[in-house]
Amino acid sequence: MLVRGFVGDAGLDFGGFAEVLGQGRTWRIIWQTLWMALAGTAGSVILGVPGAYALYRCKFPGSRVLRAVASVPFVLPSVVVGVAFRALLGNGGAYEALGLDGTVIAVVLAMVFFNFSVVVRTVGTMWAGLDPRSEEAARTLGASPLRALVTVTLPALRPAIGAAASLVFLFCSTAYGIVQTLGRPGYGTLETEIWVQTTTFLDLRTAAVLSCMQFVIVALALVVSNKMSNDVALSMKESWPKKVGRGDLPAVLLTVGVVVFLLAAPMASLATRAFQHGGGWSLENFRLLATAGQGFTGGVSPIEALGTSAQIGLQATVIALVIGVPVSVVLSRRTSGAIRVGQRLLDGLVMLPLGVSAVTVGFGFFISLRNLLPGEVMVPFVQAVIALPLVVRSLVPVLRAINPRLRGAAATLGASPMRVLLTVDGPFMVRGLGLATGFAFAISLGEFGATSFLATADRTTLPVLIAKLLGRPGADNYGMAMAASLILAIVTAGVMALCESLQPRAQRGTGSGAGVTLGRSSVTAKSPDAAAPVASAPRTLSKERKP
């Protein structure tokens, strides 16, 4: 990608950058990408911080259900979210009267839908571990609840809020699926423009320049994240949720409203529209999934596409695990000096696909390997690359939680390095493999951005086919998109729920010990280095909270 952007026929050449950056369209798209990402970030933080307090510091009937519902959107494929908002805001939807269908506001709301849980989990985990005595001391000295919150609690939460905001900005600035399914042609972002330049105009150099610009935005976001997430000495203490008081009602009511009207409503509308056909309740949309759809002269059916997605998902999962397990072992070892620097470099390279857009990853595969490998062969590999960071982030905290003295004792008793790996690390690793496998398979099932570059007509995945169905006129195609999206959502969420249920109890939720929260948000472990959310979240999150 860099070569395409910087090197011309005569060698190093910045003319392509100058030409692309000299166009007004380019800067309009960059600005549109930035302000939409900022709006999505602001909405997620404004709603997510009160949600973190209500769901992690307050105890009330239904709080566990609300926390579970708040976690679901993050694991859903972006195409499913886009279709769900189309069902909610479009003709016949519950929010049709708002007139938001096809507007940029719909895209921003979908971004908040996706990332609300990132803020809630990242901030809530830290909030649950703050020592309450600091706030109690401020109240004793006469501070009102609001002043204690502003002067004591929020400054202590600044690293977590900054890390969460940086993560959300990354995810919003690289949101391809929801922009593609919700926005109109005038609402392009860097991601959609890369796709347009590649597939419509066949202008690979312009696409490469835009990809480089997106990489610059990601790098700047990471710098800001590092600056905002510097270590802060905090007093951490296990604190139990308290009963809701009068002063807690605004945060609780706001959170309930967000969960019901912003998070649950789109999925409820999707389920409702999937069972409606011809003005009444029917299973016709699901029956049509065995066909190629109205107006198609050929191609695969959604049922065949689901089978292809599952097959590719299994292949991508195996590839991600084959690479991720050895990498996790290397990254989990406590080292120093030059080896430690090498570990950090390797960790940064492995995490890179998580911060860089999936469209950029797919575009890189497309321009570098399209003359060597057919697209259907590249799809499992590109999906494995995208899933690899989550596999590593699922395994490294588990391995770092192992007491190094166990390995030393085994080696002293004569065990070879391989036997130490199998008998000491192996049983611990099995605890994280279930979640790592679930992340890899679920990410592969719902991956859309990179696959849209590489999927062929006879091996189309279900997310790509859903987008095609939405782009075709006809009530049957629309109904099939709803039904297929509902099935994809159920399968993806089911895979993640099953893998989470197989985890040992100590590794679930937000307690101490090695555990993983939502894949792209944060990782909590006994090791300080393993606890930081991707993109440099605060190390203070990692402080072990002893019972």
From TrEMBL:
Residues 506-547 are annotated as: Disordered. The chain crosses the membrane at residues 34-56, 68-89, 104-124, 156-179, 207-228, 249-271, 312-333, 345-369, 381-399, 478-499. The keyword Cell inner membrane applies. Residues 525-538 have a biased composition (Low complexity). One of its GO terms (cellular component) is plasma membrane. Keywords: Cell inner membrane, Cell membrane, Membrane, Transmembrane, Transmembrane helix, Transport. Residues 30-225, 306-499 form the ABC transmembrane type-1 domain. It is a multi-pass membrane protein. GO terms for biological process: transmembrane transport. The keyword Transport applies. It is found in: Cell inner membrane; Cell membrane. Its main location: membrane. PROSITE patterns: ABC_TM1. Belongs to the binding-protein-dependent transport system permease family. This is Iron ABC transporter permease. It comes from Ancrocorticia populi.
